[in-house]
Every structure is written in structure tokens, then in C-alpha cells.
Amino acid sequence: MEIWVNPACSKCRSAVSLLDEAGAQYTVRRYLDDPPTAKELKAVLKRLGLEPWDITRTAEPIAKELGLKTWGRTAADRPKWIEALAEHPKLIQRPIITADDGTTVVARDPETVRSVL
């Protein structure tokens, strides 16, 4: 299992605590220091069953600078969104947990974290 975290994020710290309490074996990926590639993002999105705009933090200052709220949300726009997430990992919603069985979640609440255990 791998969890993508930003250590400054309270939801990430909470998710890590829940994994620790459960005795889960996992790897921490500080995705701001080790950003996912476009290929990795595509794989995670496929596992999540989501589109890139679904995991984008549109309130971030960089999102406003890029004008993300005005970007299209069609299949043709998908590559542009993925590139933006790869270039600016701060835009990625967190934490994301990828379990060994293929389950992948955006673990923003305790119930979702527990769903991968």
C-alpha cells in the first residue's frame, strides 16, 4: 500500500495515524517532493475511476493563476489537466491511498481510510 501525503496537511496526518493504529504496512510518498508522472497519474485516475479535474484542488493559488476553473472538462481536455497536475503536484487532492489489491481512494475522511484496510 502507498499513501501520497503532504506532511503539512491535517487530513494526511490523520490518514497516516489511522493506518498506523491499524498496523497497516504502507509506503509514504511525499508527492510534493517526489511528484507523480503523467503516466502514474493516469494509472491512479483509472484505479479511482475519476477524471483529473475530480482530484484537482481548484482553490489553490496556482489553480487560479492557471485559470483552471475555465478549463474544459471533456476527454479532449484530459491530457492538459494531467500535465497540470504533474507539473504542479500541489494541485492534487490528498491523501491518495493505493492498496495492493487495486483499491485506490482519495482518503479525506476516516471511513474512506478504513475502507482500504
UniProtKB/TrEMBL annotation:
Transmembrane segments: none annotated. The keyword Transmembrane helix does not apply. It comes from the Bacteria. SUPFAM superfamilies: Thioredoxin-like. It holds the Pfam family ArsC. The keyword rRNA processing does not apply. Keywords: Oxidoreductase. This is Arsenate reductase family protein.
